[in-house]
Amino acid sequence: MPTIKLYEKDSYIKEFTATVVSCEEKDGAYFVVLNKTAFFPEGGGQDADKGKIGDADVLDVQIKDEIIYHKVNKSFKENEEVNCVLDWDTRFSRMQNHTGEHIVSGVIHSLFGYNNVGFHMNDALITLDVDGPLTEENIKTVELTSNKAIYDNKSVKAIYPTAEELPDYDYRSKLDITEGVRLIEIEDYDLCACCAPHVAKTGEIGIIKILSFIPYKKGTRIEMICGLLALNDYRNLHTTNKSIMNMLSAKRFEIADAVEKIQNELSNARAENKKLMADLATLKMEKHINGNNVCVFIDGVSYDELRNCSNTLIDEFEYCYLFSNTDENNYIYVVSSKENNVREEVQNLNKAFNGKGGGRDTYAQGKIIGTKESILEYLK
Length: 380
What we know:
By secondary structure, the chain is of the alpha+beta class.
């Protein structure tokens, strides 16, 4: 016998009494069927409700062949009367977000003719996919229009058309079904097939905030939040903003300018530091010249400094070997030549000192294991 879906008739039921139809144990959990329930089972992109049946935790809710199964952590007797309580804060937040998603999808469909082709909602975020491209200006228009629907406090109601009546309705749906269709109508904004609980008035949503959007499969993927989630998001952003204001000694809407100024100063400082490091590395060079080749050791510098030093020597010597010790018996290297191919030189160097590295024809870098004395002996 199908479970009576209390959540379809009244989405505001927080507590109810029901009779246990059956209770089966499987893999250490119990699956309870009630004669009626206000717990929404997972479906339509929305997670299942949580809460309590008696003193048992409701861990999951699923529906199969119109029978709703409540996964709980203790057993119940058949025909037992039980008191059931929903986790209302979570349920209401989901109602706010799911109804908000309907509004955004309806507005996009109305303004641009695009369809909602993918939807998922968890307790932190809504992901919405539509089958057409949207610009930054489009998104701003969608967000503003959607929030106007909230300010207008439009009614939200469920409609149950018969199979004969259904063709008379112009509604959105990702599934081609003709029987048992439940339509959610948001006055003047949307009509969509949906099985989930929704708020009764759009004003209860509070706010709709689109966080981001990206091109996705020739359409657009949107991330959004509504209601209490949006409020909590703003609180977190406001707290972070205040901290950054204090660190930068900047006013509320001057943070971006302050950060840009610091970035420019940092970029200039890095460029100056790079020049100083290059000059210092040049001064610290320990050269070992052998004919037209030079071997250079510089303690404690990076590949950048080795490369800069190589550039100062490359016109003077046929081959330049530059090394810097990272720790005892470990060296990074740069091998370069202005006109000669250094690949074979580097391969031999890596083979002799258990190293690894590579590069282009006239330049290569890498790491080897060895002492200064052994490197110099090898290069002779």
